[in-house]
Design brief:
Blueprint (H helix, E strand, L loop, with lengths): L3 E3 L1 E3 L9 H19 L3 H8 L7 E2 L2 E2 L1 E4 L4 E3 L22 H12 L1 E10 L5 E11 L4 E9 L6 H21 L1 H8 L7 E2 L2 E2 L1 E3 L5 E3 L10 E3 L6 E3 L12 H11 L1 E10 L5 E13 L2 E8 L1
Parallel strand pairs: 2-18
Antiparallel strand pairs: 1-12, 2-17, 3-4, 5-6, 5-9, 7-8, 8-9, 10-11, 12-13, 14-15, 16-17, 17-18
């Protein structure tokens, strides 16, 4: 059984919330672009998507397209970047936005993700973007997004997340998995430091440790082979439609990285807030992460 430990950091202020109407309009915009691509040649579609005065540019909504190697194929505002490979590019918080989009399209066909990106409708101000991605065919995918306020973490805070997870990893390797999971689940334990704490899940995204999850919201059972707490696979979507199963499993496949989530902040009476999480693969049976609210 695989295990992933996670935690995060919270970003200041209320959670970025996009209305159902906004999300539905975004999905319709992207699906219409996909239909256009499937009913025209690839060259015609990419030329249309790259036209800043074309039918697929509407304020902050526009289409960008990539192949599955991460090479940009279309963008109406950045024509000079077409043909560049951006698979390993990151946003200011270290999130690999192109890789995340590629993995969402390749592994699930379509879905939502978060990342930071300049908003062309607001003088290219850097803002949080909720993007909807869809696979066109086995060669390429496309997407678009809507924007909210920016949330940028200081470099030293990101280093703190990585250091905290590595400390938890060393604890697992030195003291053993069972003891570590018990410690990670203790809200008064050594791995709960303010808003920082460790969350453990297995390779199927099943929770094994969390210091704040208890009661009727989650059903725990005891693993017959150890004292570990186990619960059924979580499949929750956040308030903006992000499927955490999808994004966490994509991150597990990579081995490590940063992702955004919108979750309750226990330090602020469980108010929903945006969180930047860093996750790390310890081995094939162990994954862990932490995070900070932005």
């Amino acid at each position: 059984e695989g295990l992933w430990l996670s935690s995060g950091t919270y970003l200041p202020g209320p959670a970025p919330i996009f209305s159902n109407e906004t999300r539905n309009d975004l999905v319709s915009f992207v699906e219409n672009a996909k239909a256009f691509a499937l009913n025209h040649t690839k060259e015609e579609a990419l030329k249309t998507f790259s036209d800043p005065n074309g039918k697929f540019v509407n304020g902050e909504l526009y289409i960008s397209a990539y192949d599955f190697n991460g090479t940009r194929l279309a963008h109406p505002y950045l024509p000079e970047t077409i043909g560049q490979n951006e698979l390993d590019d990151t946003d200011p918080n270290g999130v690999t936005d192109v890789r995340d989009r590629r993995d969402m399209a390749a592994n699930y066909g379509s879905g939502f993700i978060y990342y930071l990106w300049p908003n062309p409708a607001r003088s290219n101000t850097l803002e949080l973007k909720l993007a909807y991605i869809t696979k066109v065919n086995d060669e390429w995918f496309l997407g678009s997004g809507v924007y909210n306020d920016p949330y940028i973490l200081k470099p030293e805070d990101k280093k703190e997340l990585v250091s905290f997870v590595n400390e938890a990893k060393d604890f697992v390797l030195e003291d053993g998995k069972d003891k570590a999971l018990q410690v990670f689940s203790d809200p008064k334990g050594k791995f709960v430091r303010g808003e920082l704490y460790i969350v453990a899940v297995d390779a199927n995204n099943t929770y094994l440790a969390h210091p704040y999850i208890h009661g009727d919201r989650y059903t725990y059972a005891t693993d017959a082979n150890s004292t570990n707490l186990v619960r059924t696979k979580w499949g929750s979507r956040d308030i903006n439609g992000i499927d955490y199963n999808d994004i966490y499993i994509n991150l597990m496949r990579r081995g490590s990285g940063f992702i955004y989530t919108v979750v309750p902040n226990p330090a602020h009476s469980n108010v929903l807030e945006l969180k930047l999480n860093y996750g790390l693969k310890v081995d094939d049976n162990l994954w862990m992460s932490t995070g900070r609210f932005l």
